[in-house]
Amino acid sequence: MSGEAKLVLNDVSFYYGDQPALKRINLRIYANEILAIFGPAMSGKSTLLRILNRLSDLATEGRLEGEVLLDGKSIHDPDVSVTQLRTRVGIVFAVPVPLPLSIWENVTYGPLLGAGRNRSDLDELVEASLKAAALWEEVKDRLNEPATALSGGQQQRLCLARVLALEPEVILLDEPCSGLDPISTMKVEEALVALKEKHCIVIVPHNVQQASRIGDKAAFLLMGELVEYGAGEQIFTRPQDPRTDDYITGRFG
Ligand SMILES: Nc1ncnc2c1ncn2[C@@H]1O[C@H](COP(=O)(O)OP(=O)(O)OP(=O)(O)O)[C@@H](O)[C@H]1O
Ligand SMILES: [Mg+2]
Fold first, then answer.
1. Alpha carbon of 249 to ligand 1 centroid (Å)
2. C-alpha–C-alpha distance, residues 102 and 5, integer Å
């Protein structure tokens, strides 16, 4: 889909101490699309994701250069609240970490920190979030049970539901299926494909196959450099750069 980019990176570099982890990245990320950021270990994929909701602020001796725009406005402007940014740009990690609370409480935890909402609103929010994360059917009869009793694949979808309950515009996922079996992986992927109707999704997939299955767009990172960016269909069938070709055909990495 064309139109204005949701997120724009202009010449973004990131350093840990004097070590560059990202080198002058220029990238446009669009709503209603899934962007898969892939590449070998230590190429800067997680760093790039974490910059987008300013989790990278927490890195000791981290230093950012360049500019990140969300809807045309810098996410580093002094009047931007990081808390608010993180509700607009949510993140799901590789290892699901549910809170030691019930399923219902896990989903409502974030929204309850904000403005007061009544019980029936919250019930609706829980149902909608769990449905969008493709988990509702499996847990609707046991919402008061501890989240820790769920399987790994269910916990990962619960963590996705928890992010969705905050109604983010952008969803970041860092290898969300790395510990999951193929069936759970498929469920998460199906949920993401449905979610792009309403959201902008940026995923670091756990392998090239996942990137090619769900990436409308794909970006290949290598040692902090954006080697190639384009439509997934093009990158995975007709890569322009020999380094991308070597990586996706398994010649290295
Ligand atoms: N908190 C940190 N402090 C110092 N260096 C870091 C930190 N996080 C990442 N790095 C370094 O930055 C570089 C990029 O790391 P990053 O985690 O972004 O890569 P990645 O592509 O996500 O790798 P992986 O596939 O292993 O998850 C690596 O050289 C890494 O050692
Ligand atoms: Mg990583």
1. 24
2. 38
The total number of structural domains that make up the chain: 1
- Expressed as residue numbers, the domain containing 52 is 7-248
The closest-lying atom of ligand 1 relative to the alpha carbon of residue 47 is: 18
CB under 5 Å of ion ligand 2: residues: 45-46
Q: Whose CA is nearest to atom 4 of ligand 1?
A: 16
Contacts with 166 (C-beta within 8 Å, 6 or more apart), sequence order: 87, 90, 110, 111
pLDDT at 110: 83
pLDDT one-digit tens code per residue, 5-54: 999 999 999 999 999 999 999 999 999 999 999 999 999 999 999 999 99
Average pLDDT, the chain: 94
User: Residues near ligand 1 with C-beta < 6 Å?
Assistant: 16, 21, 41-47, 59
CATH code for the domain in which residue 142 is found: 3.40.50.300
